[in-house]
Write a structure and sequence with these properties.
137 residues; mainly alpha; 6 helices
């Protein structure tokens, strides 16, 4: 089931990029990011309330709060940079560069999370990097 959700995530991420490029026309990128964030916030809390998961908030450990907050800050920084780049540059170049996050995430998964490094992951990361360069240059 996780594969289906991963594919849906990719589809929605693709739509996000195209819809954002259209939506930020004549809108400050920071303001556009704030609007997007507000919509995501309402949607996320709506799902929490709809599924009855709000009670779980009291069971979240301090360490989890810290890392979720740091993740939120990283997301915010990413979105601010992404929207600015998308507003200033062509989507066909910005989007592939942004997707280098896959390669960076792999490296961090190996270095920080101590996940097993295998030849497929290295080859895939290398191909993504080369593919990005081909698309951008």
């Amino acid at each position: 089931m996780w594969v289906l959700f991963a594919i849906l995530s990719a589809v929605f991420a693709a739509l996000t990029s195209i819809l954002a490029k259209i939506g930020i026309e004549n809108v400050d990128s920071t303001l556009a990011t704030a609007i997007r964030t507000a919509v995501v916030l309402v949607m996320a809390w709506g799902m929490v309330l709809l599924t009855g998961k709000a009670g779980g908030i009291s069971h979240i450990a301090g360490r989890s709060w810290l890392f979720l907050a740091l993740s939120g800050l990283a997301t915010g920084a990413s979105w601010l940079c992404y929207y600015y780049a998308l507003q200033q540059g062509p989507a066909s170049k910005v989007i592939p560069i942004d997707k280098l996050s896959v390669v960076i995430s792999l490296v961090l998964a190996f270095a920080v999370l101590h996940e097993k490094v295998d030849a497929k992951a290295i080859a895939g990361g290398a191909l993504i990097t080369v593919g990005t360069l081909v698309m951008v240059l």
